Amino acid sequence: MSIRTPAAPRTIEVTRADSPASPRQGTRIRLERVTKDYGLATPAVDDISLTIEPGEFMTLLGPSGSGKTTTLNLIAGFETLTSGTVSFNDREVSALPPHKRNLGMLFQSYALFPHMTVAQNVAYPLRERRMPKEQIRRKVADVLELVQLTGRDGHYPSQLSGGQQQRVALARAIVFSPNALLLDEPLGALDRNLRAALQTEIRRIHREVGSTFVFVTHDQEEAMNLSDRIALFRDGRIEQIGTPEHLYQAPETLFAARFLGDSNVFELGAGAAGGSVAWGGREWVVDPATVAAHPGVRERSAVVVRPEDISIARTSEGVPSGVNSVDAVVRDLEFMGSYRTLVLGLGAADTPGTARVPAFEAGLTIGEHVSVWWRPERQRVVAA
Ligand code: ADP
């Protein structure tokens, strides 16, 4: 019997040569007080500072119009800064044109050359850099293996599926060992299953190549699935930045809580510094550790509880002591396989809410009056 050791990160030819980008050795990208003002009511990007660590997978997430693409274009050099600086590994690049920044780009449209084969498309950036033929041949073979397109070298883009074309574009974007790979909604044009498959591919390729990836999306699931860290954008500013787990578990604001995952939201108005708060005639325990550090909490706050942290009691006697609870009505029941989603009306105001309970917790009916409860340490008091 042989014992399998975990595979070491593969050092592929693509990452060697000029920039030795083995895992965690990409370029550090630093934005300092960056603003882009198009002369509209508010700047597209409004005084943001952000450091993307070498080899990090950073996602710029946010609603449409929040400034993600403009930020990516400022990193790429497609847009000029109104103020602030962009640097790569402590070298300022603010005034460098795009072609001197040595970045890989991947867009929603694959932008492949239709009259060139897969191999010719992928070789293009290397030919532009006047790399010797034999080295080009090896690098193209290596990168096509990396994106699992070995054997397709001679195909034309029109002979490939959308997903395969996007993998060719990805191969072309990383074959020259760029300082970083910038990806602007690259999976936006693909259907759901293909999207999921390519997310897995992109994660694997990021692990193997080890360079810095900056990914723009408005899709929170995609961001959570892919990223080391997420910068959540709102109106040209960064609302919050952190690991997916941190943003999900410890949102600072109602915007962050709502943008990443489902929540039950109880608006409080002013002040929940710790101790207790009142909602709908109930007094709730507030563990100070669950109050967001955000200064806005003092003016307007809300209690946020994730659906998986909500429990249901059929009677108020079934609510354990030391927890927070509220009366609710079951508005709908959705069977999701391993669990059930309850659509709830919370409190006298019938505030919409949701809970996720084990599928075997049977017997609840639509219209039934219940008590919902959660442990105070599972709630989060955020700025509303
Ligand atoms: P996102 O990528 O988050 O959807 P963008 O960065 O594309 O947002 O846009 C941010 C804001 O800047 C939007 O209000 C958009 O209309 C504006 N904007 C983007 N590009 C331009 C431009 N070239 N000229 C004028 N306004 C622009």
Average pLDDT, to the nearest integer?
90
Question: Going across the major beta sheet, what is the strand order?
Answer: 6-7-8-3-9-10
| CATH-level-2 architecture of the largest domain | 3-Layer(aba) Sandwich
The rounded distance between the terminal residues' Cα atoms is 59 Å
Helicity, as a percent range: 10-25%
CATH classification, class level of the largest domain: Alpha Beta
Number of domains: 2
- Beta-strand residue fraction: 25-35%
Reading the helices and strands in chain order gives EEEHEEEHHHEHEHEEHHEEEEEEEEEE
CATH superfamily of the largest domain: P-loop containing nucleotide triphosphate hydrolases
Q: What is the C-alpha radius of gyration, as a whole number of Å?
A: 25 Å
What fold name goes in the CATH topology slot of the largest domain?
A: Rossmann fold
| Largest sheet report | 6 strands, mixed
Can you tell me the residue ranges where pLDDT is under 50 for at least 5 consecutive residues? 1-23
By secondary-structure content and strand pairing, the structural class works out as alpha+beta
Q: In total, how many beta strands?
A: 20
Number of helices: 8
What does this structure look like?
The chain has 384 residues and is of the alpha+beta class. It has two domains: 29-246, Rossmann fold, CATH 3.40.50; 252-383, OB fold (Dihydrolipoamide Acetyltransferase, E2P). The chain has eight helices and 20 strands. The strands form five sheets. A six-stranded mixed β-sheet has the order 6-7-8-3-9-10, sandwiched between helices. α2 packs parallel to α4. The protein binds adenosine-5'-diphosphate (ADP). Adenosine-5'-diphosphate binds next to α1.
